[in-house]
Amino acid sequence: MSPRPAPAFSVLICHTGVRLLLANLLAGCLIAAAGMQTAAAQSAAPAAATAPAAAIPESAEDGAAAAGPRPVALVVPFAPRGPTDTVARALAAALAEQLRYPVVVQNVAGAGGTAGAAFVARAAPDGMTLLLHHVGMATAPALYRSLPYDPRRDFEPVGRILDVPMTLVARPDFPVRTPADAVRHIRQHQDSLVMAYAGLGAASHLCGLLLSMSLQVDLIQVPYRGTAPALQDLQNSQADLMCDQTTNTGAAIHAGRIIGLAVTSARRLHGMPFLPTAAEAGIRGLELSIWHGLFAPRGTPQEIIRRLALALQHALASPAFVRSMNDMQAVIATPDQASPAGLKSLLESELARWAPIIRKAGQYAD
After folding, report:
1. Tens digits of residue pLDDT in 100-120
2. Is 202 helix (H, G, I), strand (E, B) or coil?
3. Are residues 198 and 256 in the same domain?
4. How far apart are CA 310 and CA 319, in angstroms?
5. Structurally, how many domains does the chain consist of?
């Protein structure tokens, strides 16, 4: 079963006048969040201190006059209705409120998230095309022997967004219900159990690798074209197991459409206290949370990065975003984490963490 095709929300075109446009747009933005105005503020309403401007017009009307109806594109390198897409749509609404300018989600799925990342790496560095990616940004160099971009060199980190714990889940008619029994059943029937995941390089793929290594089993790993069809097959008992983010599994667990076996966080989740941690269930080495970060193309001016980071920090604190992420058990980044330096440090540590794990697994996506 395949997910519905991603809507073509926007086409982003780089043209020869982009530098001139960038200069004009930056001149019309506020110099500081406190509200100091530039000369352009005589003809445009000032942005509030809680709505820092990026390299975009100060309002949708100004944007239409300057460059046509071109919204900020928040690129998600995975299919619609997946966990990363869920986070992106909530963030797009919060960012649009802070920037006072449209932000649309653009799904550019394929090749385990590398197609969307490559798309953003090639985009104009003007603050109008952003990438929302997760830990896959750090695992791609080890999974792909030929990668069309360099995570360190080809992107400007804006800030960390949040961390989402994973859940080990089973089909609704799985023959055992307790975590200890599930571990025994997995070990005894590893040759016949199907583990679904949302494509090579997806968070569910990485979690499945860690599960196999932790239990020293060799499950039948079946890739899908996105989380939604994989989860649907699990609910329909066409697959046996899956390991995916709480943003997508939480509601299905609570509704009884799938069985929750364990969480991959260090502590039990406040929204699902009945689920033991993987360590409590006897699965050592399966502590994993999927971080998400915001990136811009290389060469994006640092003033734009600074403004975007400030807008991100305000967006992460907005009540609607906090409420929606709390409902999905996500842990929102602190202001220090939601900064260029914070995301850069995280990326470096994660690149070092995942390279030996993937090499040991001996799996390549290409």
Report:
1. 999 999 999 998 899 999 999
2. coil
3. yes
4. 17
5. 2
